Structure formats: C-alpha cells, structure tokens
Amino acid sequence: MSTQSILLIILAGIVALFLALFQYKYKTKSALKDNALFIILRFITYFGVFLLLINPKFEYNSNYSVKPNLVIAVDNTQSISYLKQQDNAKSILSFLQNNSDLNEKFNLEIYSFSDQIQVLDALEFSKKQTNISTVFKDLNELYKNTVAPTIIITDGNQTLGNDYQYKANQYNQDIYPIILGDTVTYSDLKISQLNVNRYAYLKNKFPLEAILVYNGNDAIVKDFTITQNGKILFKKQLSFSKEKTSEIINISLPTSKIGVQTFQAQIAPISTEKNKTNNLKNFAIEVIDQKQKIAIVSTVLHPDLGAIKKSIETNEQREVVFLKPNEVLNQLNDFQLVILYQPNNSFKQLFSALEEQNKNKWVISGLKTDWRFLNSVSKNYSFEITSQTEDYQANLNQNYNNFIVDDIDFESFPPLKSNFGTPNFNVPYQTILFKTVSGINTNQPLLATIDVNQRREAILFGENIWKWRAQNYLNSQQFTDFDNFIGKIVQYLASNKRKNRLLIDYKSFYNASDNITINAQFFNKNYEFDANANLTISIKNKESNALINRPLILKNNSYQVDLNGLDAGDYAFTIASSDNISSSANFQIIAYNVEEQFLNADVTKLQQIATNNNGKAYFVNQKNELLQDLLSNNKYLPILKTNKTTIPLIDWYYLLFIIALSLASEWFIRKYKGLI
Predict the structure, then answer these.
(1) Domain coverage including residue 412
(2) Same domain for 532 and 653?
(3) CB atoms closer than 10 angstroms to residue 343
(4) Read out DSSP for 546-566?
(5) Distances from the Cα of 18 to the Cαs of 47, 52, 79, in angstroms?
(6) Do the beta carbons of residue 513 and residue 128 sit within 8 Å?
(7) How far apart are CA 46 and CA 620, in angstroms?
(8) Cα 90 from Cα 92, distance rounded (Å)
(9) Which residue of 294, 366, 377, 620 could cross-link 463, Cys pair, CB 3.0 to 4.6 Å?
C-alpha cells in the first residue's frame, strides 16, 4: 500500500470520528448512555464508506518453485528401424519417462521428430525424412527463456535441412545426445550423391554427376553402370583403395522421347558389404520439347530484376533474357511472355507491337514508372497520377480463381513502394493481392490479372519485390515458396488455355522419400471458389492395376490429398467432383529411400554438438550414467518465483457487509429505544 493511501485512511478515520461525535455528542441535546454505541456504529459506517471511496490496494506475495524442463526428442524416422534400433529407442524413452527421481526433479517434455518436430504421439519409425536442424530451431523458440536441458535420441543422420551443428550452436540449452546405431566400421562402397537436372531437352544430352565413396582397407575394382529399362547406357570400371576413397564421374546421357524417363545408377557391391541398398539409386528426368523464353524489358537497374529472373529460372523449363525496349522488337516471336519493368515513353513501340501480335504481358510499376505514358497506351486500366508515395503491404485474396495461390505468409512481407493513388480498371479483372496500409485492407489491387479477348495481362503496383524473396528465406530458410508463387504467375501468363472449373497442381514424378501431395481448386459456375465441394481422387497403379480412392481435404484456399505411402511405380489419377467435372493426369514414383542409405550412426557430429553445448554424448548402454549426471547437476535446480497479487479494497465484499450491518444495527437500536 502506498504512503498516500495510508495518509488518506488516517484522515478518513479522523473525519469519520469527527462526524460521528458531531452527530451524537454535540448535536444531541440530551445525554444518552447509548450515545457511545451509536458513535461507534456511525464511525464504522462513515469510515467504511470513506475506505470504499479511497479504494486502497493491498498487495501480498506468494512464493512457489518451478522445476526445470527436461526436453526429450526422439527420432521417429525409417533410418532407426533400418539400423534395428527401434527397440533401443523405445526402451530408453520408457526408462526416462518412468524414473521417479527424474520426474521429481524435472518437468519432462517429450517430442518426436522427422522432417518436423511435434509432441510425441506414437513411435512408429515410419517417417521418410530427418531434419535435426528444425529440432533445435523450434525448441529454441519454445524454451528460450527457461532452463531446459535437451536429450536427443537419434542416429544423427540427417537427410533434409541445414547442417544441424550450426543450429545446435544457436541453441541456448545443454544437449545430451543418446546415440542409436552401430559404431563398428564396416567396408562400404556407395553412391554418395547423384546430381542431375529435373528437365532435359529432346534429342539433346543431359549432364550427370555421380560421387562414389569407399570406406575400407582393401584395394578393389568395381563396375559403375547406368541403365534404362535393362539397357546399359554407360559402364566404367573403377578402382578404390584405402588411399583412393572416392571417385567423381561426369557424363552426358542422350534423350530419345518426350516425357518422364527413369534410369538406374549402380556400383557393384563388395561381397562382404553390410548395406547394399546404397549401391543403387534410381533417378528420373522429364524430357521436354523446348524451353519457355521470357523477356524482362527495362531501362532501369533494380534488385527486383535479378530476384524475378532467379525465381523464374528455378524452373529449368524457363529461360529469362534481359533486353532494352528497342532490342526486343525484332525478337518478340521468340518469347512466350514479356515482363515490362517500370515502363516509360521508350516502351511506346513495344506496347504497339505487343498489341498487334496479341502477346501476353506483365507490367510491374514503381517510382520510376511514367504513368502519363502508361495511362495513354493501356486500354485495360489507368492510375491516378500523384506526386506522393506510399508503402503497401499485401493481403491474399482467398477467392482468386485463375490458378492455385498458396498463402506464403504475405502479411509478413515488407511493403512495396508505389505512387499513392487508386487504379481504375476498364475491363473485368481479378485481384491476387490486395493493398493494406497499417494493417487495414484497402480493397484495392496490389497485384491483379486480366483475361480478355484471348489475351492475358498482370499488373503489379509496386517495386522492391526482391525484399519479398529475402523475407521468404528468413521465414522458411528457403526461397521455394516465393519462387513457386512467381512461377505460377508466369505459367498462367505464358499460356492462353481456357479456364477450367477444376484446376490440379502436381509433379510429373516424385522420389519415394518425398512428401507426395496433389492440390486442386474447384469453382462454381460463376468461377467462384467452392469451399463446399466434394472432390475425390482415383489412383491406378499401371503395373498392378490396383485402384485407390481417397477424398481431398480443404486446406486454406485449395483441396489437398496426401499420397505418402504409395509404392514406387507409374500411376494414372483422376480427380472428380460430385457433379462429374473431372481432370486426369499421370505421375511416377521413383524407388529411392534416403533413410536406408546409412550404415552407422554419425557419432562424431553428435559428440561435437554435445561438447559445444555443455553436454555429453551417451551410447545406449550408458543410460544410467546419463541419469546420474542429470540428477547430480546443480545447474538444474528449481527456480523460486514470487507471485505478487494486488487486490483493491472495493473487491472485498466483507466491507460492504460490515457497513450494512452497522447501519442496520444502528437503526434497530434506535427503533428499540424509541428514538425513531
């Protein structure tokens, strides 16, 4: 309670006593022996009312102790099963979970991980990818302000994500790895890596790089072959020894027909080799007829140009060329799409040529755009000309229906810089992204598309889109989401196909260890996204004729089906709606399990992260030693915390009861004495 409140309470007591004395001692002529009782009751009434008006606040503290967290993360991927360590993993987890001393000292928080981390539900060791770096990244967010030593039960073999040693160095907790897997070194010859592009061109050769690694003492000679449908396309005899442990093969292979072509690379195994799975690797390429060529035309230098080029060319089917407005005129027929960056008067002939040849285009405006010129040549839209600028953030239009647009967290992206003003459209258009200012949606388009008279156009009202690509990397440690977004815009603009009510999004082939999903969007007769559609997918294995039917689940603004678990092979599929609108395609699953490529646990790396993070690595038979180290470590002690509670007097209902009781008592006594 503050000093001011104490002084006010003392003053309230004095005033209450003065008023009570004045009313019953000085104002009353006759001296009644009961006046003293009335003075006390009236004092209580006045003082209670004054206390309510002052409303002092009382504080009290309660102490309690908080046990430190003990985080346990268990590898739930197929590599644990392949190394025959699933029983050890379950045994160690049960040992830690059921130890009473450990539970008395710590709050146990248990997770499983594969390509992502989640609260432990069940250990099945069936996941296809291991990303240990995401374990440390996500746990660092959860426990950054607490004491949370971390036990990670794994073989240390990662197949996805950033180097987990780097992420572990950023993790502010002690790490105690429990190493699963055989530490004995065996002779092994394997295909360590196979580098090949996803696409190749008909009647051309495509490059392939194979990295072969040998671990052993004896000198050996083995054949490396590449085959297709049993036919040998390449064969070379290679020698390895204790001194010569690796070989890099660079070759070019021919293409003969359009479509997905599958191949098999193999290095002959050693007779005593324990893991022969990693001696063979299937791979595929998609043979296409020609590249899509896209021209980016600009007279200014800007980081946006490089970002757009990189995003488009992540799809190997596309090639981007930078040109000046006068350079592109004689080459227009070579391009499927022209991107006009911040056009000005020098683009006049180009706009005329695009109009004459009925070419699709994408206009990107910014602070150096000549809107007087652009308003004069554009028949589809105009823009209010002002000298002011504004920063606009993006908000996804969930009802956009020309193609599937995933929400890649646009609201977290930095604002684009644009002239302040309102765009006016003279033709029907669809907004992909709305402008937002200070979090308020303006319902004005930031990015929109137009499809009229068999011609498509997009317009982006803002520059600095390169910052979006950078932010996407900060959000997810990859550029993939942003690049796919730009790729879908380019794919839509580079085509003049008629709009369908059912759109599907899939890849022509997947590796068996990939996350295999197919997306679809369904629209009603007015081409508005239908969130109540009933879509099913029918999948047929072309070899076995086995048929699988599954429903598609609504996720954000599209429908999705998870096809993980399908065997390797060729598949045909059809997605159909309840009103018999359907779309069909084919895909292939390439037999390759990355989790089966490992022979041993990565002991060195796990020991290194333990040393760097003030922990210690343990093997399966050292669980009792781990337990004693945790229980005896004085760093992990309960933290005494104080909970400070402030209660205003007005919340104390007993005071109201005392005031009411005082008034009632005074009234009854006065009534009894005949003073009323």
Answers:
(1) 292-493
(2) no
(3) 26
(4) -EEEEE-EEETTEEEEE-TTP
(5) 11, 18, 86
(6) yes
(7) 75
(8) 6
(9) 366
pLDDT at 658 over 80: yes
Q: Which helix (H) or strand (E) holds 228?
A: strand 220-228
Determine the residue type at 564. N
Please give the average per-residue pLDDT across 628-642, as a whole number. Answer: 87
Q: Are residues 284 and 296 in the same domain?
A: no
**Number of independent structural domains in the chain:** 5
Q: Are 440 and 300 in the same domain?
A: yes
Please provide the size of the chain in residues: 676
What is the average pLDDT across 51-55? Answer: 80
Dig out the tokens for 208 from the structure: 């392939």
Measured between alpha carbons, how far is 134 from 368 in angstroms, rounded to an integer? Answer: 42
Share the mean pLDDT of the chain. Answer: 87
Query: Quick one: 122 and 209 in the same domain?
Result: no
Beta-bridged to residue 177, according to DSSP, are: 152
Range with top average pLDDT, 20-34, 181-195, 317-331: 317-331
pTM: 0.65
Does residue 2 or residue 50 have the better pLDDT?
50
Task: Give the per-residue pLDDT at 199.
Answer: 81
- The torsion region of residue 507 among left (phi > 0), alpha (psi -120 to 50) and beta comes to beta
In this structure, the number of other CB atoms found within 10 A of the CB of residue 234 comes to: 16
Same domain, 244 and 370: no
Same domain, 433 and 453: yes
Higher-confidence residue of 231 and 672: namely 231
- Tokens representing 597 are 């490529």
| DSSP H/E element including 610 | helix 603-612
CA angle 431, 554, 399 (to 5 degrees): 15
List CB contacts of 300: < 8 A, sequence separation 6 or more.
341, 342, 368
Residue 629's pLDDT band (cuts 50, 70, 90): very high
Q: Rounded CA gap, 321 and 500, in Å?
A: 31
Distance CA 376, CA 370 (A): 10
Decide: residue 225, CB within 10 A, 0-12 exposed, 13-18 middle, 19+ buried: middle
Q: Which of 493, 515, 530 is the last residue of a domain?
A: 493
Sequence letter at residue 459: I
Task: Assess whether 381 and 303 both reside in one domain.
Answer: yes
Do 332 and 390 belong to one domain?
A: yes
The pLDDT assigned to 204 comes to 81
Token pair for 470: 């950078």
